[in-house]
Request: fold
Amino acid sequence: MERRYTLEGGGSLAVQADGLRAVLTAERASDSRGLYKAYLRGPTGRALLGTLAPENGQLRIRRTLTLDALERQGAWPPVGGELELAFAFGGEKAPDGWCWMDPERLTFGEEALRAMAVRQGRILFRRVDGGFQLAYPFSCARPFPLPGLFCLARPMALAGERHVCFCFDRKGWPIVPHGGGGTGVC
Reply:
């Protein structure tokens, strides 16, 4: 029986157990942003499936792995999957006042916040008085970027695209946004 999962980071994952092996197919719409790596998540770990490649207007990878290998990595039985932007193509300019940042370089007040941000890959970042802001592209068709902070997200337009913005103090703790006019001011 085939099981389907929505990948954290966008796209879908089909998992088909076939005897002592699993056939795994991850795919997402091609967006020309860069190279994506797909992972199968299990109860205690994750297994790298590989880098998605263009195929018929989509990005896709299909792998057949042994159940034993997936179990050793803590990725079987599956509980979901992840997709991360592993390498961004050059030329993607950040909106004025923002820069691209690897969340591994940021300090957060709690490890769970850091883990959520790291799973999203490269993010838009800017310093503000008393802390910093992070912005993520937003689409109803993709999982919400930092689900634990859903109630603190502020919608905003950056370079003509929809984003959600999160505000943090100097120590990396989330703060409640205020102000009006969609300026993204915390």
